[in-house]
Write a structure and sequence with these properties.
Blueprint: H1 3-20, H2 26-33, H3 37-49, E1 53-57, E2 60-63, H4 65-97, E3 100-107, E4 110-117, E5 132-134, H5 138-146, H6 150-159, H7 165-178, E6 181-184, E7 191-199, E8 205-214, H8 222-238
Antiparallel strand pairs: 1-2, 3-4, 3-8, 4-5, 6-7, 7-8
Helix pairs in contact: 1-2, 2-3, 4-8, 5-7
Length: about 240
C-alpha cells in the first residue's frame, strides 16, 4: 500500500466515524472501509497517536478532540468567507429596500446573526451579532429549518414542547414551496421580516438572508419578495450552487 492509498484509507476511516454520529468497533470500521480488521487496527493506532480518534471503552471508537478542533476552525473559516462574499449583496439589498439586512446561521435549535447591514433610517431594526433566537420563531430561523433535511426537521420537532407542531409543519412546507418566509412580531413587536435561504455548492442550506423593518413602514409586496429571493439566489450561485432549488 503506497502513501496515497494509506492516506485514502485513513480518511475513509475518519469519514466513516463522522457519518455515523456514534461510536464504532474495529470490525464495524473495517467493514465500512472494506479492509481487514488487522489493517483497520493499525490505522486506528496511528490516528489515535495523533489525537484524531479516541477509544471510549472496549471496542468503542469515536472522533478525537483534535479533529473536532480542526472542524471548528474550518467552520470559522467558512463563516468568514461567507460573510465576505455576502457583504456586497447585503449592502445592495439594504440600499434598495432601505431596511436592515441580516445574515444568519443555524446552530442546533437556534438561529444566530453573524453579520448585518443596518438601515440608515432614524427608526430601524438594530441587529446584534451573536444573538440567538429559537429556530421556530421569526423568518430567519423558519426559512433555515424549512430547507433542512427531513431528518433534521424531525429531530428538531421532537425536541420542542408547548408548540403547535402541526401548524409549524404546515408553515415549513409552505415556506419550502414559496422559497421565502415572512414573519411579523414573532421576535420583536412591530417588526416585520422577509427571509430567503442561501445554499452552498452541495445545494444545501447554509444560511438565511433577511430584511427587517418596522411594520408601520414596511409593506410586503411581490417586488420586495423578488428582491430578497433574487439576492439570495445570486449569493448562492456565487457560493457554487449548481441548480436553483
Amino acid at each position: 500500500m503506497n502513501g496515497t492509498q494509506t492516506l485514502d484509507r485513513a480518511l475513509e476511516i475518519l469519514f466513516a466515524l463522522a457519518e455515523t454520529h456514534e461510536m464504532l468497533t474495529v470490525s464495524q470500521i473495517a467493514d465500512k472501509v472494506g479492509i481487514p480488521d488487522s489493517t483497520a487496527y493499525r490505522f486506528l493506532q496511528t490516528l489515535e497517536q495523533h489525537g484524531l480518534i479516541e477509544r471510549k471503552g472496549k471496542g468503542q471508537i469515536t472522533l478525537g478532540l483534535r479533529i473536532l478542533d480542526l472542524a471548528r476552525n474550518v467552520h470559522h473559516q467558512i463563516n468568514k468567507q461567507l460573510i465576505e462574499l455576502a457583504i456586497p449583496f447585503m449592502e445592495d439589498l439594504t440600499k434598495e429596500t432601505g431596511e436592515t439586512s441580516i445574515l444568519a446561521l443555524r446552530s442546533g435549535g437556534s438561529v444566530i446573526c453573524i453579520h448585518y447591514v443596518e438601515s440608515s433610517k432614524p427608526i430601524r431594526l438594530k441587529a446584534e451579532i451573536g444573538k440567538a433566537f429559537p429556530l421556530q420563531l421569526g423568518a430567519s430561523g423558519k426559512v433555515l429549518l424549512a430547507f433542512e433535511s427531513s431528518k433534521v426537521v424531525d429531530q428538531f420537532l421532537s425536541g420542542i414542547k408547548d408548540s403547535d407542531t402541526i401548524g409549524l409543519i404546515q408553515g415549513l412546507a409552505k415556506i419550502r414551496k414559496d422559497g421565502y418566509s415572512i414573519s411579523s412580531g414573532e421576535i420583536y413587536p412591530d417588526v416585520i421580516a422577509i427571509a430567503a435561504p442561501v445554499f452552498d455548492y452541495r445545494n444545501q442550506v447554509i444560511a438565511s438572508l433577511t430584511i427587517a423593518g418596522p411594520v408601520s413602514r414596511e409593506s410586503i409586496d411581490e417586488t420586495l419578495i423578488q428582491k430578497i429571493v433574487h439576492t439570495t439566489t445570486s449569493l448562492s450561485v456565487k457560493l457554487g450552487m449548481k441548480n436553483e432549488y
